[in-house]
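Deviations from the work plan: none for this task. Representative record:
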Amino acid sequence: CSLMDTHKQGRSKFMEFPFVSGPHKNIMLDLISTLEDRFQSHLLPCSLPPDVQHYITNSGTSQVSLHIRPGNTDSPMDFVMGSWVHAELPTGGSLDITSLSAYLNSSNDAPNFVFELIRSSPTMLILVLDLPPRKDLVLWPDYLKTFYEDTKLDTHRQALEKVNEVQPYITSSLFIRTVASPTAIFVRIQTENDGGERMDEIIRNDIEPISKQVLGIWLDHCACAKRELGEEDRAYVRKRDGVIRNKTIEVDLGTSFPRLFGPEAANRILEAIKEYFTV
Amino acid sequence: CSLMDTHKQGRSKFMEFPFVSGPHKNIMLDLISTLEDRFQSHLLPCSLPPDVQHYITNSGTSQVSLHIRPGNTDSPMDFVMGSWVHAELPTGGSLDITSLSAYLNSSNDAPNFVFELIRSSPTMLILVLDLPPRKDLVLWPDYLKTFYEDTKLDTHRQALEKVNEVQPYITSSLFIRTVASPTAIFVRIQTENDGGERMDEIIRNDIEPISKQVLGIWLDHCACAKRELGEEDRAYVRKRDGVIRNKTIEVDLGTSFPRLFGPEAANRILEAIKEYFTV
């Protein structure tokens, strides 16, 4: 069928990760296959329009690949979203962003999964790796205990912090800081001026094992958690999810996409994403 | 009257700050007088028992001074709490903690004020300076905008970050991380091995002006904010305040005080504090 063809074509472009280094591509493929293997039977094909699944500007200087697979009706998974962005910079270098995130629906109030690598030069990388909570952790201390303390999530943040080139990264958006969990990994990695070899070593030896462990915690303890939610709990989670998703479009994608792809294409892509972000 | 005598005696001991450096004492006195001048007519005398207002262990190695002034019934102020702790360490050095915090009651949902200096050696200091929110910032983006974005609170965190010796401090308590605002200042300052001169310079030149500005924002935009709260809002704020205060006793004071003062005295002091921490 043509939906399946569109899915396959978009997917093969997405899985190419054509502009990033070998270790960077490997970590993406590894996380995607781990997540999809576990939720194989839950995930529907990507049905985004072809020109949203892959878009390249007329000048050819910026392109984006977007792959969204919704969960089926019986799944706790709302959707899984993967993307890469490549943009040639006026300064001669390039910006490469790759991301994988998974959003649960309101049958399960467990945290979501977010992973993003932003490489603005061979020697500069920002890593975001978090299981953002879906309830106010102050009012629900049991939720904090179950998903963050008992899972020992913070040990992985601590392990990464020990790498010499790793520094905390504080985003300028107070909203993004607010949405993050207390064990969120937001780091900036700056290596010495080689061709990127040291950065690829850090990706392979430090970021890859830590990301796999955090994804493992998410799969075992969050996505597969048996949570019994009453109607009131579901309404609360739906409301909070809705605010976060709207704001994410507004402050994150909504400001970067127009700059990268021009207002018209950005608008088309954002409208397509919003369909999934609506709770 | 004897209540006033007790207040005066405890207060004069509290205001001595006998174990900290001149600049460290100055910053405490300055913040206390700024806060009290503004709320002069609102604050009642400290009515803690004398042996809670000042307590020294039998061995004389640890002592604490505690000064709590409740707000009167017409005030938005629930209470103002100041304290200092001095403990001689087995290693030969000493630990000095000084703090000032102000808690609003549920007639006003604006953030509280928290300031703490923890000096574990002449060359090592931890600073906590924050206006912790009293609502879930995800569900109330207007609250985030009003108290954190519009007040440009983050500029003060950024200014301090620029000082060479200042590093982010990540507390091991996930609960304390959760309670903090997105503009919270949690920093560790480590200076070179002088007698503490450089640290005192940082306290005078960097920490003092920044703390005064943050307290100024709190006084102008939080403590004096005109907030119209319905019964539902008040109940929500009371509930959230209650959780935070209980947990603060449990994870912060409740673990450090018994170590410093022994279980019996710690228990007596904590029970006295709990009367004010009950919402």
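The two ends of chain A are 29 Å apart (CA to CA).
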